[in-house]
Amino acid sequence: MSPPPLAVTDPLERWRLLLGEAAQDACGALGESAAAADAALDWLYGRDSDLGARGERSVGSRDGQRFGVRTDDAVSVPDWINAVHRLFPQEVIERLETDAVERYGIAEIVTNAEVLQRIEPSPSLLRAVLQTKHLMNPEVLAMARQLVGEVVRRILEQLATQVRQAFSGTRDRRKPSRRAVAANFDFRRTVATNLHRYDPASGRLYLQTPRFNSRSKKHTETWDIILLVDQSGSMTDSVIHSAVLAACLWGLPGMRTHLIAYDTEVVDLTDDAADPVELLMKVQLGGGNDGAKAVAYAQGLVRNPQQTVLVVISDFYEEAFVAREMVRRMAQLIADGAKVLGLMALDEHAVPTYDHEVVQAMANVGAKMGAMTPGHLAAWLAEQLQA
């Protein structure tokens, strides 16, 4: 009989689960449900290489039953996944599955059909699928595609709203508007206009006349937006969000969106830009990179430099001669009138890791450098196109 879902109310049991086996004598024995949860945690975190130094036992050494299976049974990844989903709340499940993939490299999490049927879609598991899809047989790959589709759908749902807002027209603070639209609310002018209605006794400002900005007129010329994405393994998050952003930009009036992935070779993925799932399943993560070759390809796509924005998303770790050639080509594009933006990261965290010398060299020739969330990049693009 399997243990019931985790419901630990005893404070000592909670401390025992938190502190691990070393607290057994002080906190006492665990109940059936808590013991099953402890065994599931030990199956994963018992893999830490420093357990011996702390006087703790490594994985496989625990006596008794492991989350409802006999001790003489080999504990498989599906066994563990099933136990985790039975014993823990959703937020804990996602953390455990993420750690299994990212911290301990248990590739079977995303290459086993039985596990994929139970796995909770999440960004970390999407990254794992993209990194291990070459190991999957056709049946598992089809299931993994469904997982990718669900995670992409969630990201797309959120980002599409940000892109629509960004390209609905930028605010022009020089021109007031009579249209009462919340997105155009002018805080400074509203406060200034209504200062006479301030009540010192209550400390409140009562608004009688709200003020709003107008929006600038959109350009009628067609812009080329070229997203050039380094697909080396360290850029996985940026590749994911570039694919979703390209799908959001695809089909916007007055814009042609190009999506180019590169390592040591260049792959034009523009034909798949409208379908980020298909696009991501074609990406080959890992390997080296050749930014100069990628920028050279992008130059060949430029029709009108004054109506072109090149966004290069990379950590810019290149061989010195490759970096020099890449920067030289960027300088040519900028001299011709194109806008060049270098991004060291494009994801929800926007935490960059990059070659400082190369990034500085790009900035010196006029490229705008930064690390952005996809929503901020969409807003920046809108400002450039509507300036």
Automatic annotation (TrEMBL):
Pfam families, alphabetized: VWA_CoxE
SUPFAM superfamilies from the UniProt entry: vWA-like
Membrane-traversing stretches: none
InterPro entries: LolB, Uncharacterised_CoxE, VWF_A, vWFA_dom_sf
Domain VWFA: 222-382
This protein's name: VWFA domain-containing protein
Biological source species: Comamonas serinivorans
